[in-house]
Write a structure and sequence with these properties.
The protein is α/β, with parallel strands linked by helices. It folds into 2 domains: 247 residues, Beta Polymerase, domain 2; 35 residues, no CATH class. Helices cover 55% and strands 7% of the residues. The protein is built from 16 helices and 7 strands. The strands form 2 sheets. Strands 5-2-1-7-6 form a 5-stranded mixed β-sheet. A two-stranded antiparallel sheet has the order 3-4. Helix 11 crosses helix 12 and helix 13 crosses helix 14. The longest helix is centred in the first third of the chain and has 33 residues.
């Protein structure tokens, strides 16, 4: 078997929500088989920021001491570093929330920020954090930035142009000595996904959360899952590029398991289908089922396109050449064409945009050949 696929399967078996004794026994057998490509396992887990989560699960199943010594020490150290970093980020978060509460603003914690003040993973170091995302009403943006400037946060001057008024968040705010940046969001996503989960809807249905006397909010469980899927599949282009979004899949499965009675998958499905993103959702759910054993939501199941898409993703993971061509294919996705050429979703408009893209790349290639210095040797 291809080492990348072996690594993928081992990571998913570790992280799957399976407490059966036979599951632990199968993992123990794999660890002691001498056949696992440990380098590929660590590389893939690191690329998807899942090494601390793997350590937590293996430790919980009393399997950590059975790992090769070097690997065990590596995973343990990465988990400890993540735990220390998250403790510092929690301090930053609470300081920022306190400052915003003082001006009567209750921020909505997005993405990993919620996990700094909740116990969904059962371990404060399980999820690697890189920044803190806070959603506030668009009309309060200037007040929020002024308040955070009072804490010493500033944006790097040369990146302001990348975060225009239509971007879903302001330029990241940095402060010397801190472990991560603050991102103040004016919206949940950018075009063309903004209408699938409107910011106004997310704000209106956000749920209150109090921690250490501070007032904050989180998106509803349904909106959290939808927001995660949108960012993973569409905003980050994983669906178009043929990338298996392991970290996102693990988060969605963890969230849906913890909030089974609160998640309305019919809303997620209708929003995605309404905006012609049903294939992306079905592919995502097929991967969640195949890799982690997540049951399909009622009314949804395996489809031929989702199976074929998963095979494409596995091929790209296995072979560099397949990945190169898969990424090239992603450059011609409907979302990329809409964003670059402003076309609609219609077949004619999208394919005309693809023709323009292809012609432009061909022209650039010919210009490069013409300008290439000629070899004068005979």
């Amino acid at each position: 078997m291809n080492p990348q696929i072996e690594a993928l399967q081992f990571i998913c078996r570790c992280l799957a929500d399976d407490a059966r004794p036979e599951s632990s026994s199968a993992l123990r057998t794999a660890i002691h088989s001498g056949q696992l490509p440990w380098e590929a396992v660590v590389s893939l887990a690191n690329n998807h920021l899942l090494t601390p989560a793997m350590w937590v699960v293996l430790n919980k199943k009393n399997l950590s001491d059975e790992l090769p010594d070097e690997l065990r020490d590596c995973l343990r150290e990465l988990h400890q570093l993540s735990k220390e970093r998250n403790a510092q980020l929690q301090t930053q978060l609470l300081e920022a929330v306190r400052q915003l509460n003082r001006i009567d603003i209750t921020p909505v914690l997005l993405k990993g920020a919620m996990h700094l003040v909740t116990d969904l993973y059962g371990d404060s170091g399980a999820r690697i954090m890189t920044d803190i995302d806070l959603l506030v009403p668009r009309e309060k943006i200037d007040e929020c930035l002024t308040a955070l400037h009072g804490l010493g946060y500033e944006a790097e001057q040369d990146i302001h142009s990348d975060y225009h008024e239509d971007h879903h968040h302001c330029a990241p705010l940095f402060r010397p000595g801190d472990y991560g940046s603050l991102e103040i969001h004016r919206g949940l996503t950018d075009s063309p996904t903004v209408d699938i989960l409107p910011t106004e809807t997310g704000l209106a249905e956000a749920q209150p959360l109090e921690f250490q006397g501070l007032c904050m909010k989180v998106l509803s469980p349904t909106h959290r899952l939808l927001h995660n899927i949108l960012h993973s599949q569409l905003v980050d282009h994983n669906y178009a590029d043929g990338i298996i979004p392991l970290r996102s899949l693990h988060e969605v499965i963890t969230e849906s398991t913890a909030n089974q009675k609160c998640v309305d998958w019919s809303i997620i499905q209708s929003r995605m289908e309404q905006h012609k993103r049903g294939n992306a959702l079905r592919a995502y759910l097929y991967m969640a089922h195949t890799l982690f054993g997540m049951p399909f939501p009622e009314g949804m199941g395996k489809t031929l396109p989702s199976r074929l898409y998963y095979q494409r993703c596995c091929a790209q993971l296995s072979w560099e050449l397949a990945n190169e061509w898969g990424l090239r294919l992603g450059r011609y996705s409907t979302d990329t064409m809409r964003k670059r050429y402003g076309c609609g979703n219609g077949w004619v408009a999208v394919n005309w945009a693809r023709f323009q893209q292809f012609r432009g790349r061909g022209t650039a290639f010919l210009d490069e050949l013409r300008n290439k210095p000629q070899d004068s040797t005979l």
